[in-house]
Design a protein that fits this description.
With 497 residues, this protein is mostly helical. The chain has one domain (2-496). Helix content is 74%, strand content 1%. The chain contains 22 helices and 2 strands. It has helices spanning 2-14, 17-35, 41-48, 57-82, 91-102, 106-139, 144-161, 166-180, 206-225, 238-247, 252-267, 272-286, 299-314, 316-322, 328-339, 348-351, 353-383, 389-408, 411-429, 435-458, 469-482, 484-496; strands spanning 183-184, 191-192. Strand 1 (183-184) and strand 2 form a beta hairpin. It is globular, with a radius of gyration of 22 Å.
Length: 497
């Protein structure tokens, strides 16, 4: 009941004229970002984050979260009409969405995709509403050892549960830790790894790094690939929407199962992309029409879209309750909160109730606004892809440069942005994941502080990380995750023999 009252108060905060206006602006910008390959939720938020520096934190986070909702919806448009995933998690949507468009059922496919996205995100927001306060209350009992164990579990989960090569994930994470260590030591106050450059006193700014990694890196890759777009036209009318909505209840088991998969993969560092593929695979295996998947089955659109949006939304739960982002986008939002002087974690629910519950309320409203906008404006957003990439790319680069310069009004940050852009490009070419690097860059200092505080408390003894049942169990699970790739290989070798 307490959560319901707090949520109603959050709606009062979110439903101000300014917040409502920026909600629709954010959703529209997000859809445009989601439609354009080479961008995405994390990229768009990183690029547009400087625009929110003059806003109140609540208004700013509402706008940014709505950009996120819009990007989630926008990825489906290109997947269905052009067979080009606007987002990585939209790849699975192309398997049945694009064949439906080729059959003249683009309106049906898009309606199913948007509605499924709405359902997945809505279920995840309901979960956040009731679960986040409980997690935050529990986390109030945490001390430095407990916080370090949770950080350590997050890092190890990326290694143990990541879909990429474990060594590449570890290497990316180590680079993130090294970059996070540049600047002033938060414990001793000494300078480190600045190589005599006074400009590196404040270290590498997180925002400059993510603008370069995601924005510039993706643009460089897209320029090399020489993007060109061609696809199907779509117009969604009220009749198509109603007919599709009449068919969707048949797949309620698929939707429910996809919501569970998505929420689990979002809370853990699995992410939206593996959630969409896992949900599609399970649906194909469980469905009576599984053999026809890939030929234009409506269920093949419902499953990945529901799971991806449930995962993308539920990734915000550990970010709000524990201060640990569950996705690259959540990591960017975490960086924004820190810039505004807000510390995500359990105390946020006590000290900044208006902010937290205003944000949660905006999730409901932004999700609904996104559904309305995409159902009414699909042809408009699809037409964006017909603008030559040679025009779009310079505009994005200029926006990135302005965003990077705005952080500290320093020309040096633009050069750092370009440097990180090259790093992002190299990572993409060599198939190194950027999410672990971004995570280490955001949480590196905080994990280090918790570790060193724990060492001071225990006078240098590592036993402090196994001093009670809670921290001991989390650390044990972390070590299992860390060595899981090795254990999996040993298991496969034993099985072969």
């Amino acid at each position: 009941m307490e959560e319901i009252n707090a949520l109603l108060h959050g709606f009062a905060v979110a439903l101000t004229p300014v917040n409502l206006m920026l909600m629709f602006v954010g959703v529209t910008l997000g859809i445009i970002i989601g439609v354009l390959p080479g961008l995405g939720g994390a990229n768009g938020i990183a690029i547009l984050l400087p625009l929110t520096f003059t806003m109140q934190p609540t208004t700013a986070i509402i706008m940014l979260s709505c950009i996120y909702w819009g990007a989630l919806f926008g990825g489906a448009i290109t997947s269905v009409l052009f067979n080009i995933p606007g987002e990585p998690w939209s790849v699975a949507t192309t398997f049945d969405g694009y064949p439906m468009a080729q059959q003249g059922r683009a309106g049906e496919a898009l309606t199913a995709a948007f509605t499924s996205s709405f359902v997945g995100a809505f279920v995840a927001v309901v979960m956040i509403t009731f679960l986040a306060p409980m997690v935050a209350k529990f986390a109030l009992k945490f001390g430095p050892p407990e916080f370090f164990s949770v950080y350590f579990l997050t890092f190890c989960s990326f290694i143990g549960m990541g879909k990429g090569h474990a060594f590449k994930t570890l290497a990316a994470m180590m680079l993130g830790f090294a970059l996070a260590a540049v600047g002033m030591d938060t414990v001793t106050g000494q300078l480190r790894l600045n190589f005599g450059w006074h400009e590196l006193l404040r270290g590498f700014d997180f925002l400059v790094a993510v603008i370069g990694l995601f924005g510039i890196g993706e643009i460089l890759l897209s320029m090399e690939e020489g993007l060109s777009f061609s696809g199907n036209k779509a117009k969604i009318n009220f009749k198509v929407v109603l007919e599709t909505w009449g068919k969707l209840p048949r797949y309620w088991i698929t939707s429910l199962r996809s919501c569970v998969i998505g929420c689990w993969m979002g809370i853990t560092p699995g992410g939206a992309t593996p959630a969409s593929f896992m949900s599609y695979g399970v649906a194909k295996r469980m469905s009576s029409q599984g053999s026809k998947f890939g030929t234009g089955q409506l269920e093949g659109v419902v499953a990945p879209e529901t799971a991806a949006h449930a995962a993308g939304t539920s990734a915000l739960l550990p970010m709000l309750a524990l201060g640990i982002p569950g996705s690259p986008t959540a990591a960017v939002l975490l960086g924004g909160l820190l810039i505004w002087g807000l510390q995500p974690g359990p105390l946020l629910f006590i000290e900044k109730k208006d902010f937290v519950w205003g944000l949660i309320a905006s999730m409901y409203l932004g999700n609904l606004a996104g559904l309305i906008i995409v159902l009414t404006c699909v042809p408009l957003f699809a037409a964006i892809l017909r603008v030559p990439f040679s025009i779009i790319a310079p505009i994005i680069v200029v926006i990135c440069a302005i965003g990077a310069f705005t952080v500290h009004n320093a020309m040096l940050d633009i050069w750092f942005m370009l440097m990180f852009g090259v790093i992002g490009y190299v990572f993409k070419k060599l198939d190194y994941p950027m999410a672990p690097m971004v995570l280490a860059l955001v949480l590196g200092d905080r994990a280090e502080d918790s570790f060193r505080q724990s060492m001071l408390i225990s006078q240098g003894s590592m036993d402090v990380f196994f001093s009670n049942g809670l921290v001991g169990s989390v650390m044990t699970l972390s070590l299992v995750m860390l060595f899981w790739p090795v254990l999996s290989k040993l298991k496969s070798l034993v099985t072969k023999r």
